[in-house]
């Protein structure tokens, strides 16, 4: 009976040691789980901040693109007006050649003025078009970034 008691006490000691080992492992795993939760929360906050920053940039770029489009439309209208003026000046120039009352110097001055205005409009139009292209490229970059954020943020359903 003493031997059996000693044997059982030995088994109980072994089971207690095994139980303590398992309890230690469990505490370590719980700490690790808590650390992982904190890390995931931090990553989620960082990702959210980055998404907000990208959204703000997208809004700014959209505003700039709209402004550039409006400017381009305005310049196109101005260009059309100047082309009409140029046509009128050419008509006036032709009329002067046929002997009408205005002097050739006035016609030349008007044509030069129209040409200067036309060159100014062309220069401004080119600048606006460059702004539009730049804005479109920036929007494409933001769209690509947002697509890549979706791939980065994918988390398997089992939480690993």
TrEMBL record:
Domain of life: Eukaryota
Coiled-coil blocks: 19-92
Keywords: Coiled coil
InterPro entries: ENTR1
GO biological process assignments: positive regulation of cilium assembly; positive regulation of protein localization to cilium; regulation of cytokinesis
Keyword field contains Cell inner membrane: no
GO (cellular component) term, any one: ciliary basal body
Family annotation (PANTHER family): ENDOSOME-ASSOCIATED TRAFFICKING REGULATOR 1 (PTHR31259), ENDOSOME-ASSOCIATED-TRAFFICKING REGULATOR 1 (PTHR31259:SF3)
Family that this chain belongs to: Belongs to the ENTR1 family.
Descriptive protein name: Endosome-associated-trafficking regulator 1
Organism: Rynchops niger (Black skimmer)
Gene: Sdccag3_1
